[in-house]
Each structure stands twice: as structure tokens, then as C-alpha cells.
Write a structure and sequence with these properties.
The complex is a heterodimer of chains A (465) and B (153). Chain A is mainly α. Chain A has helices at 11-37, 44-65, 73-93, 109-130, 141-153, 180-203, 222-237, 241-259, 263-282, 284-294, 304-316, 339-372, 376-400, 418-439, and strands at residues 3-6, 97-98, 104-105, 161-164, 167-173, 176-178, 206-210, 213-216. The radius of gyration of chain B is 24 Å and the shape is elongated. The chains are: A mainly alpha (465), B alpha+beta (153).
């Protein structure tokens, strides 16, 4: 009997891992309360029920719509999201105050973040229902590109943009503020993938050689220069190095994957270095960031945040102080930019390393989907989406641990913030749709049976019979 | 709480997190090898994409060569057939571009499945080179070497 090798569906493994992930997040939450109050919180069964329900909805949607999707992506995402919720709740507890009249009050950002998680899972489900076949996204590269760029530059519109912590990457929409760049990153990734699939032949034609590297032809430098100009606009007007790096890095990485020309990343690094150096010379706050990176203890007041984070890591050591027993709340912005410092303090190097490994596996699964995908658009899309995670995790964790200068990117799924959470869940949904198509045992029949024999080429390989 | 209990819980939590990582590693390891199944089992299990499997398509009965050195020849479909240059193939194509055992067509429920048997020059369905077993029905074209075949009623 003819046999072939197919991927297993492995939805069972996904379910087991989901239960495991939720168990870890819940134990973090319970340990916090045990360590602080020596008692379990009254509402803990509700927290278990809420997380289980959300995971169940996501799992059932995957079983229904994309049964061949990668089994690891969903549980690992749920793990990161749950750990983030537990840490945000732990930081909420640190704000507990007892008023004079005896009432106890504290912040409730974890509850809000749980609502955002619920919204994210619903949108995740919606993406799976509407976009079971991602091919439709291939059709509108230029429209998506325009929409993405408009969203990216939206915070520069007077009256709409808001400046927070020195960066102008927010817009206010009546009841809450949004970070449109979080959504722009997905839209632009889709647009880049669609554009590069169509143009890669042209963009990879060789031009002059310089120092042993084949440069692209001058006229093919247009796209990379356009993205560079947009990134420079973001860098200079929104004062956000992280966002500029994310978008430019994403484009250069996808250009390299599509064309296989090493000259593009070389040109990209040179262009970005030039812009970063200009920013260093022109802006005082960039110089502050660089000093805080190389020599934080030279100025305690200015570099207070990064110094507190380093003290946190140092106090945490190998196994951490334990949930609720450190003082991560001393670091400003511990719930957003510095949540990895809070985790490093309370879970230690072992805990933070596990989280980084989970990010690594998540990115590797995405790149695996890119390798396994049969169609070039799916390949580029999966690679681009994985690269978004890779760049974000690398820059923010590098910034917090002082491997790189600090840039204000969000830590995917961990840090507090609705825009980032929803956008990253949409990203995961898209990635899982691509993996579903990559891992399905049979390709569907070609949609168009009309045959164009003239376009065929047949080659003879000598002696290979 | 007792500090030893706290230490124990702390270590226990980290062990749980790393257990998850190891479990994920094991899942990836088993995922690498996949699962071996037969073509007919695959078809019977309904693991074929139903998209584009239009109900109005009648099940094809013949495979007819419409281009190439043996144009005009046709063959009844039904039992699994092997196409190749070798004498034991059901459809022997006298063509240097065809491998000894080039492709196999077997029957599913309401359609046929064609798979490439590791040929040198590939098998093309509707002008796209196939890399995995692919569903074909009436009107679809199959190109192997210099020959083009269509599935007919």
C-alpha cells in the first residue's frame, strides 16, 4: 500500500499544554497571595474559571477552523499571557493602601488586562472564522501598505496624538488611548509579504559588485529607501527608536528572505546606523538612553529606572525572591516596559530564562511554518510575523538587561496594555492559519484548471534517471 | 509562612515552568517525524481538503493522453495505477523525461489522488508542480515529462 508521511494534528497535545500553561499562571497568582498574606484570595476560583474558559474558547475555535495548526503556538501564547496577568496582579497588590476610614484600596490593572485578554480571544476567534484562507490578504498590497503607514503616522496628527513618557506613539479615542503602531505592524507585515512575493524577481536582479558583494540595481533601492524615510520620520517626530527599529528591521528582514541578497541587510544596517547616529547627535533624550546603557551609575536620578531594574535582577539572583516577595514595584513602569525586570527579580534567572526559551520556541515554530509552507506568500507572511516577535523580544529584553540601549517596545503578551495584547493575538491567529495550511496533508486542487502549456519548462538532468 | 515552605514553593514553581519547556521540547521532537499513513487511509479518513471539491464534478473514468509522443492513448481509472518508464507500470510512457516509477494515481471517495513517487522532473497538476499527494477530478490536467493527460468522464 502506498504510504506517505503527514503531520499529526496533535490537538490533544495542545489541550494538555494549555491546561499546563494555565496551571502555571494560576500557581503564580496563588503563590503571590500565599507569600504575601499566607492565605488564598477569595476570588481565586473565578480566576481559574475565567482563564480556563478563555483557553477553551480558543482551543475549540482552533479545532473547528484550523485543525492542522501548530499545536505549540496557542499554549505558549496562553502561558505568556497568563504569567503577564499574574505579574500585573502582583504589582497591583504592591499599591495596596489602607485609608483612614479602614477601607483597603489598590489598583486594578490586572482585572482590566483580563478583560483585554477576553477581547483578544474573541478577536482571535473572529480572525479564524473570517480568514481561514489567508490568500485573500495577498490581493491588496498597496491598499494595506497605505493603511498601515497612515496608522503608523497617525499619532503625529495634531489633536489626535498624545505624548506619554516622551514618546508620541499614542492616539486618544474618546474613552481610551490606543497605540496604532501595534496594529500597523501586522498590516504592514501582510503588505510587505504580498508586495515582495510579486516583486522579488525584480528586486533580486544583480547590479554592480562592491567588495565582493553584489549590490542591487540603483532603481531597486526605492522600496528600502522609502521604508527608511518612514522610519526616520517615526524616529524624529515620534521620538521612538523602538518603533522605528521594529518597522525598518521587519522590512529589511523580509526583503532579505524574499530576495536572498545579503546586500540588503548590509545596506539596511548602514542606513539605520546613520539615522541612529543622527538621532544621537540631535536629541538629548537619545544621548541619555545611551549613557543609561553604558554607564548607568554615573547619574542616579536620570537613570533611576534602569538602575532599579539592575538592582532587582541582582536581588533576584538565580532562583528569584519568589512571587510577591521582591520589590519590583520600585522600578517605574514595572507593568509595561519593565515587566521582564519584575519577572527576573521574583523568578530569578531560571524563571526569566524559561520565559525567553518560550519566546524562542514561539519564534522557531513560526519560522518552521515558513519553511514548511508551500506557497511563497504564506512563507513570507509566517517569516515576517515571527520576525516581529523576534525583534520586539530582543530589543525590549536587551534594553531591560542592558545588552542594548533601552527602547520603548512592548514585551509581547506580558506587558500591560490593550492595543499590544489584541494586536499580538491577531498576529498569533494569522501565524496559526499559515501553519494550518503548511501542515495539511493534501494540497487542495488548483482553483484554475485552465492549462497554459506554453509556459511550461521541462529540464533534463543528465544521468539522473 | 515558614521560610522553607516558601523556598520549596519557589523551587516547585520554577520546576513546573521548566517541566513545561521540556514537555514542549518533547512535543517538537515527536513532531519532526510525523506519522506514516497510506494514501487510501488518508482518503478514507476524509483528511482531504473539501474546498474546491465541487459536488457537480462527476467522478472521472478515464485518463487520456492529449499531448506528447503517445497522444490519443487512454486508460481506464479504478485500481491504483503507476505511471513510469518501467515495464511494471500500468501506464508506460516512452519518454526520457519520465522516471522509472514516476507517479501513482489512486482512488479516493469521489476523486482521485495523484502522488509523485520521487521523480526527477516532477509531476504537474494544472501546471503546478505537486509536492504532496494532490486531489484530481474530471477536467484536471496532469503533465508528466512531455505528455499531458486529462481526466475524463
Amino acid at each position: 500500500m502506498p504510504t506517505l508521511v503527514v503531520y499529526r494534528k496533535r490537538r490533544g497535545i495542545e489541550a494538555v499544554l494549555l491546561v499546563f500553561s494555565i496551571a502555571i499562571a494560576i500557581s503564580g497568582y496563588l503563590l503571590t497571595h500565599l507569600d504575601i498574606d499566607s492565605a488564598l484570595p477569595a476570588e481565586w476560583p473565578w480566576a481559574v474559571a475565567a482563564l480556563t474558559l478563555l483557553a477553551l474558547v480558543a482551543h475549540v475555535m482552533v479545532r473547528w477552523r484550523i485543525p492542522y495548526a501548530d499545536p505549540l503556538i496557542l499554549p505558549l501564547t496562553m502561558f505568556l499571557n497568563g504569567i503577564g496577568l499574574a505579574m500585573i496582579h502582583r504589582l497591583d497588590l504592591a499599591t495596596t493602601v489602607t485609608r483612614e476610614d479602614g477601607t483597603v484600596d489598590r489598583m486594578h490593572s490586572a482585572e482590566l488586562q483580563l478583560l483585554w485578554t477576553a477581547a483578544s480571544i474573541l478577536i482571535f476567534a473572529l480572525v479564524l472564522i473570517l480568514l481561514q484562507n489567508y490568500e485573500v490578504l495577498h490581493r491588496f498590497p498597496y491598499i494595506l501598505f497605505t493603511v498601515g503607514i497612515i496608522m503608523l503616522l497617525l499619532p503625529l496628527v495634531p489633536g489626535l496624538g498624545q505624548e506619554k513618557n516622551g514618546s508620541k506613539i499614542w492616539i486618544s479615542t474618546g474613552f481610551s488611548s490606543l497605540q496604532p503602531a501595534e496594529f500597523a505592524k501586522i498590516i504592514l507585515c501582510v503588505a510587505f509579504a504580498a508586495y515582495l512575493v510579486d516583486k522579488r524577481e525584480v528586486l533580486s536582479s544583480a547590479g554592480k559588485r562592491l567588495l565582493g558583494v553584489e549590490l542591487p540595481r540603483l532603481r531597486d533601492l526605492g522600496p528600502i529607501l522609502l521604508m527608511w524615510v518612514i522610519s526616520v520620520l517615526v524616529l524624529f517626530y515620534q521620538k521612538d527608536l523602538g518603533t522605528a527599529l521594529l518597522f525598518f528591521g521587519l522590512f529589511v528582514a523580509m526583503l532579505y528572505i524574499a530576495t536572498e541578497r545579503p546586500s540588503y541587510p548590509i545596506i539596511g544596517v548602514l542606513l539605520f546606523s546613520a539615522a541612529a547616529y543622527a538621532a544621537y547627535v540631535l536629541f538629548a533624550h537619545v544621548r541619555t538612553r545611551v549613557t543609561a546603557w553604558l554607564d548607568p551609575f554615573s547619574d542616579f536620578d536620570t537613570n533611576y529606572q534602569i538602575i532599579q531594574a539592575q538592582f532587582g535582577f541582582a536581588w533576584g539572583g538565580a532562583v528569584g525572591t519568589g512571587w510577591g516577595l521582591g520589590r519590583p514595584n520600585l522600578t517605574p513602569l514595572a507593568k509595561t516596559d519593565f515587566i521582564s525586570a519584575a519577572l527576573g527579580e521574583e523568578l530569578g534567572v531560571f524563571g526569566l530564562a524559561a520565559i525567553i526559551v518560550v519566546y524562542g520556541v514561539l519564534i522557531a515554530r513560526g519560522l518552521r511554518a515558513a519553511l514548511g509552507s508551500q506557497d511563497p506568500f504564506g512563507k513570507l507572511l509566517a517569516a515576517g510575523l515571527s520576525f516581529i516577535f523576534a525583534i520586539q523580544v530582543f530589543t525590549i529584553l536587551g534594553g531591560v538587561t542592558r545588552l542594548l540601549p533601552l527602547t520603548g517596545l512592548t514585551t509581547p503578551f506580558l506587558s500591560q496594555g490593550g492595543s499590544s495584547l489584541v494586536a499580538n493575538w491577531v498576529l498569533v491567529a494569522l501565524l496559526m492559519v499559515v501553519t494550518h495550511h503548511a501542515r495539511r496533508p493534501l494540497v487542495e486542487r488548483s482553483a484554475n484548471p485552465v492549462v497554459n502549456f506554453a509556459a511550461d519548462e521541462t529540464m533534463v538532468l543528465e544521468g539522473a534517471r | 509562612m515558614n521560610e522553607y515552605v516558601i523556598l520549596g514553593l519557589k523551587i516547585g514553581f520554577l520546576a513546573l515552568v521548566w517541566l513545561l519547556v521540556l514537555f514542549v521540547g518533547a512535543a517538537i521532537r515527536t513532531d519532526v517525524f510525523g506519522r506514516k499513513i497510506s494514501t487510501s487511509e488518508l482518503a478514507a479518513a476524509g483528511e482531504v481538503s473539501r474546498r474546491g471539491d465541487r459536488g457537480d464534478r462527476k467522478l472521472a473514468r478515464r485518463l487520456k493522453i492529449i499531448q506528447g509522443p503517445q497522444a490519443g492513448l487512454s486508460l481506464a481509472l479504478g485500481e491504483p495505477i503507476i505511471i513510469g518508464r518501467n515495464d511494471d507500470a500500468q501506464l508506460i510512457l516512452e519518454d526520457d523525461y519520465v522516471s522509472t516509477h514516476h507517479a501513482r494515481i489512486s482512488k479516493g471517495q469521489g476523486y482521485y489522488v495523484i502522488e509523485d513517487l520521487g521523480s526527477t522532473n516532477g509531476t504537474f497538476v494544472n501546471n503546478q508542480r505537486i509536492t504532496v499527494p494532490t486531489q484530481v477530478g474530471t477536467g484536471d490536467s496532469v503533465r508528466i515529462g512531455q505528455s499531458v493527460m486529462v481526466l475524463e468522464k
